[in-house]
Design brief:
- The protein is α+β, with helices and mostly antiparallel strands.
- Helix content is 31%, strand content 23%.
- Strands 1, 4, 5, 6, 7, 8, 9, 10 and 11 form a 9-stranded mixed beta sheet that branches. The protein has a two-stranded antiparallel sheet with strand order 2-3.
- Belongs to the BCP1 family.
- InterPro entries: BCP1_family.
- Involved in nuclear export, actin cytoskeleton organization and vesicular transport.
- Its main location: nucleus.
Amino acid sequence: MARKREREAEQANDATVDKMDHDGDSSSDDDMDIVNVDFELFNYDPQIDFHGVKTLLRQLFDADHQLFDLSGLSDLIVEQNTIGSTCKVDDKANDAYAFLTVLNLWEHRAKTPVAQLIAYLSEKAKTNASLAAVVPELLSPAGGGKSVVGLVLADRLLNMPAEVIPPMWGMLIDEIEAAVEDKEPYEFTHYLVVSRGYHEVASSLDESERKQKKARGGDEAQLLYFHPEDEEMRKHALAAGEYAFTKDDGSVADSKRAFQEMGIRPQGFMMLIEACRFAGAVKAIGDYVGGGA
């Protein structure tokens, strides 16, 4: 039997959180308080982490979360408790502020939540030229397992400090290496990282501003990232691109505003990274954030 890779709570890098004023905006330098918070990394615990992981999966898939069996997917993640991490504050019994895991798509292909994801991601990849060239073929049953794709799922609460992220990714690399040594099914040829981004768009509450933006040739096509490290990781990808959510009706909710002047339209985003480049991509996250991985 393979050894179980349990660990004591791993402390992520100390991070500072800026205290927000009552309007939700950062306070000025004169009245802003700095709060030191200790974040810790834990193995998944099926008795504790189901609901927290499910909530973060709902956030990750945004408008399309209802297309999946999120309960089944959450169960699969938390039961795989030697791979991936939750990030928490104060105590293991609390809900996760962030999570990270990788699933073997070939190993779990017959399970309903994974079959749903494979079909969904294959179709979404076809809508993006970069992804369409490689992703659908890799995920196709015709591949017969020759290419083994690890599906990387990760998300975190908004305004989580970036310093907590490199330790989570670094830990994932170590755990995958240990699992491969134990002859467990984590020897991948590719990693498919699912994330999300957004486009800034003029709020419907300000018609004059929207017209001004259009008149001066404002570009709404640029993808911005909810996870800034994705931009750095993308440089190591074989293919990467965004896609529209199926359940997005095309309207922009004014409640989803990135800044006072702008609304946002969320987009799905994925990147395919060859296994031989994955460690380099993870190292780039640490270098980018400045915390090391």
